[in-house]
Amino acid sequence: MKKPPLQSAETTRALCVDLDGTLVATDTLWESFLILMKTAPHRVLSLLFVLLGGRPKLKRYLSTHAPVDPRALPYREEVLELTRNARQAGRPIILVTAADQATAAAVAAHVDVFDEAVGSDGRHNLKAQRKADFLASRFGRGGFQYVGDAAADLPVWKAAGDAIIVAPSPRTRRRAEQAVSSVTVVSERPNKWLAAMKELRPHQWAKNLLLFVPLYFAHAYDDWWRVFSVVMAFFSFSLCASSIYILNDLVDLPADRRHRTKRKRPLASGTLAIPEGLLLMVFSLASSLLLATSFVNLQFVWVVLGYIALTTFYTFYLKRRLIVDVLALALLFTYRVMAGSVAAQVELSFWLLAFSIFFFTSLAFVKRYSELIQLRRNDEHALRGRNYVLADVPLVTSIGPASGLLAVLVFALYINSPSIQRYYSTPQALWGICLILMYWVTRVWFLAARGEMHDDPVLFAVRDKVSLFSGALALGCLLAARL
Questions:
Q1: How far apart are the first and last CA of the chain?
Q2: Are 179 and 161 in contact (CB under 8 A)?
Q3: Do 95 and 42 form a contact (C-beta atoms < 8 A)?
Q4: Predicted confidence band of residue 322 (pLDDT cuts 50, 70, 90)
């Protein structure tokens, strides 16, 4: 049964705390694996041979070649508070974990609340019954309390005589209540379905509405088969993009946990486990390719694969290159427009391509500028994982707005092109869009300078009432031009 939060002063028994899933809302073994993938991918194949020697050897290998930075882990504040209360009460506090001894020692040194840290020694996996036997021999059965989170901790709770559980699954909770007479739930398990939906970032799918743009400007929106193909392409591309978002989050976990907003993402905060994130990524990508193959066309399948290649290259290399990262972001937005032309099987307009490059270059610079502005508030001088420093602000504020205004110029030249008369009976109405674009781009940069811009300008536009109203006005201008 659930009890009020444990008060450390109620007992003088030793307080023993698990690491993975308990003190931290992640698994340090998986954290090490991701670090190895990022820093030394050539060693990944060797893991198979190391694993033949047993799980403890694997943990020792990863802790040696890809040590976890304890400062970059998502600690559970409720468990830290529990240990602080126990320390004030003068109780012995031990970190006892199946993670490698080196990892346990590093975390204990960082937290600075444990009297001792005991982990796996490279030969024996300190987990389940082995952990229960160790603690019982050290303190006697019932001579300690144990804070854990998983079904593997059931033998330890039985040896302790009671259970302190962190974010348990319903099944683990039931089994603990059957095994011991007293169960204290420190924190509830987060909703995994909601975490998975949040990790997919469906709000970011608004970017993929760009796939419909070529269909409109080719004036083929009365062809229902083309419309259906683009709708399916939208969902295919969105699921593909979601899989890339997950990959980005997995690669950037340490940096995201230090970020003011990204630290709340499911993978960074630990509400979604790393293996769950990997499965979600594979499912999203497989669904994307299935939709593209079944409902769009073969050329679009290659477009999706090309997007995967570009975004992966961006994730592992381009995002750390000065200026190139911004141009790559702009290209990825423009790539969506190109994908829409392939899905609808219409010719891509030169004007649309030029407009997209300049417009999205401006938005990409807004993203970097907003991050640089935050550096001033945090008294920092360089972006983590990016090749930008505070001294770059004047250049960013010059190039970014200029790119946005160049996009407006391209649109103005498009209005004056000879072909415009074929599609619009009143093309003069399109000049209203120029004014709206000039206002919106300028306003975005003003808000960014004031520190009022979201890290993602597209997400800002989706939520900002003025931006939505501006979009409605632009749509009205397009309709008026057709009359």
A1: 69
A2: no
A3: no
A4: confident
